[in-house]
């Protein structure tokens, strides 16, 4: 059976179970092209190993590709489309997972200013639209994919609430936003409505020239241009530069720092932060809270205040 036909069947099965499988589909289609769309039984272990390696140095992407192909071949074997799996039985030594980066307030300002470079080679609305995307990611803590799937009707500027549908865990949540971000969105939506709205209020909030939602890969690529223009390189000891996803980490850490400095009960508020970010449990949120110097200082100041109060009561 042709590889593309098996992929079609696998995607249909996954989506019948409620999975979106968007990123996996992109990878599987790329796998088909790399294998020259041959019969699934003709795919060799050597060709698969080359695909898993990719171009450049070995990275965590190897494991991502392996997991997608592993699920695909389990399906193919169970349905009789393949006799065995050509995937390797041993794993290479992968580099450590990239440490989440927390942007400083000054770096965030520079990123916003640097979006102006996107005016070169793009439509006039792209720099402003990308700047709004960065503000939204920081002000709401959304995942990138969630923001790119937003349509106009999801943004309630009167009640200052954004409806995030079809999240990572197939749930819908309401995300309240502050007055500053809301005002930015008021001005942005006004400009957005001057562009084509082929689906009315269901038109994408962030749109291409053809009125389609911005593609994840394009948005990630643009961020690297903006990051370089902002003068933000690799942190000391890190092999790779900060990612767009790190704005989500930054939003979480900055929120906790603000809670510490305003004397809030942080442990009591962490479950609320987990819900706000769309995490299924607090452990996922805790992984986001990298101990940055600012967070350490805020926690230290809070502990010192607690110790002084305890001494006074004693």
From TrEMBL:
One matching Pfam family: Phage_integrase
Gene Ontology MF term list: DNA binding
Residue span(s) of domain Core-binding (CB): 1-77
Keyword set, alphabetical order: DNA integration, DNA recombination, DNA-binding
Domain Tyr recombinase: residue ranges: 98-301
Family matches, as InterPro entries: CB, DNA_brk_join_enz, Integrase-like_cat_sf, Integrase_catalytic, Tyrosine_recombinase_XerCD
Record GO biological process: DNA integration; DNA recombination
Family as reported in the entry's similarity comment: Belongs to the 'phage' integrase family.
Protein name, entry field: Site-specific recombinase XerD
Species assigned in the record: Bradyrhizobium macuxiense
């Amino acid at each position: 059976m042709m590889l593309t036909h098996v992929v079609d069947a696998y995607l249909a099965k996954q989506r019948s179970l409620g999975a979106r499988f968007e990123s996996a589909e992109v990878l599987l289609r790329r796998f088909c092209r790399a294998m020259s769309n041959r019969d699934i039984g003709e795919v060799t272990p050597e060709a698969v190993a080359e695909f898993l390696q990719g171009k450049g140095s070995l990275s965590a992407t190897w494991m991502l590709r392996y997991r997608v192909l592993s699920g695909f071949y389990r399906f193919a074997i169970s349905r009789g489309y393949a006799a065995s799996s050509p995937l390797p039985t041993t794993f290479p030594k992968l580099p450590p997972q990239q440490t989440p980066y927390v942007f400083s307030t000054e770096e965030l300002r520079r990123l916003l200013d640097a979006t102006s470079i996107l005016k070169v080679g793009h439509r006039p609305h792209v720099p402003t639209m990308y700047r709004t995307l960065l503000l939204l990611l920081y002000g709401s803590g959304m995942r990138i994919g969630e923001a790119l799937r937003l349509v106009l009707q999801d943004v309630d500027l009167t009640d200052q609430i954004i409806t995030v549908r079809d999240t990572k865990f197939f749930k819908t949540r309401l995300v309240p936003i502050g007055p500053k971000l809301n005002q930015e969105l008021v001005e942005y939506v006004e400009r957005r409505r001057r562009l084509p709205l082929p689906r009315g209020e269901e038109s994408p909030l962030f749109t291409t020239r053809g009125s389609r939602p911005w593609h994840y890969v394009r948005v990630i690529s643009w961020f690297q241009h903006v990051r370089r223009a902002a003068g933000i390189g690799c942190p000391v000891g890190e092999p790779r530069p900060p990612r767009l996803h790190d704005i989500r980490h930054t939003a979480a850490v900055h929120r906790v720092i603000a809670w510490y400095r305003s004397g809030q009960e942080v442990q009591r508020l962490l479950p609320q932060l987990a819900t706000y970010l769309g995490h299924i449990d607090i452990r996922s949120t805790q992984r986001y809270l990298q101990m940055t110097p600012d967070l350490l200082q805020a926690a230290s100041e809070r502990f010192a205040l607690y110790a002084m109060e305890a001494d006074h009561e004693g």
